Amino acid sequence: MEYNTLQKKLILPEYGRNVHNMVQIAVNIKDRDQRNYAACLIIGVMASLTPQLRDTPDFKRKLWDHLHIMSDFKLDIDAPHPQPSHSELVERPQQVPYTQSHIRQKHYGKIIVEMLRETAKLQECEERDSLVLLLATQMKKSYVTWNRSEINNEQIAQDLCDISDGILKINPELIQNVEPAVARESYHRSPHDFSKRKKRPRR
Question: What's the rounded Cα separation, in Å, for the pair 97 and 100?
Fold first, then answer.
């Protein structure tokens, strides 16, 4: 008895070893007409093994492409579709151009960092001071989200200054006017806490 682990590795395991053996037999057929006939029979067997793909577009073309792949592109037949090239299969996909942004204080988020840098471009006025206070408030909420320790207002003020390259400054005492309990409860409340609520009696 010959185990599958000792045999040649299958190129497309979803079709099974018998189909791969049929493909190899078709490759060794010398008569072209008989080789074309054998290829059509193999396509029929492959279609019966994958009925879930019948509704997909280009179903027949995929089967013929798989037939050429299983034959290691050695099956010389008159296929209804052009044979795929081996270079197309081994070609590596293009790298997705992800935006690489180096943020030192990642717990504040990219949007907050960009807003702070844009705010630093504004002229000094009351509106800019109000915007800085709002951003510091949001930084405090983000700090609560990622740090369960005590909120350090001086650290938030220092981070705000560092992100804006020393342009924006805020008094840490102003940040203390923000109540962190709301943020801590909204971000750290466990889903099981909601199940502990008392249910109203049915009338």
Answer: 9
| pTM of model > 0.70 | no
Q: Within this chain, do residues 69 and 133 fall inside the same structural domain, yes or no?
A: no
CB 23 within 8 A of CB 67: yes
Q: Which domain holds residue 43?
A: 8-88
130 and 62, same structural domain?
A: no
Contact of 168 with 160, CB cutoff 8 Å = yes
- Are 57 and 123 within one domain? no
Q: Three-class SS of residue 83?
A: coil
Per run of 10 residues, the mean pLDDT along the chain (length 203 residues) is: 75 90 93 93 92 84 92 90 80 75 74 88 88 88 74 84 87 66 45 50 56
Helices (H), 13-123: 16-27, 32-49, 59-70, 86-90, 110-119
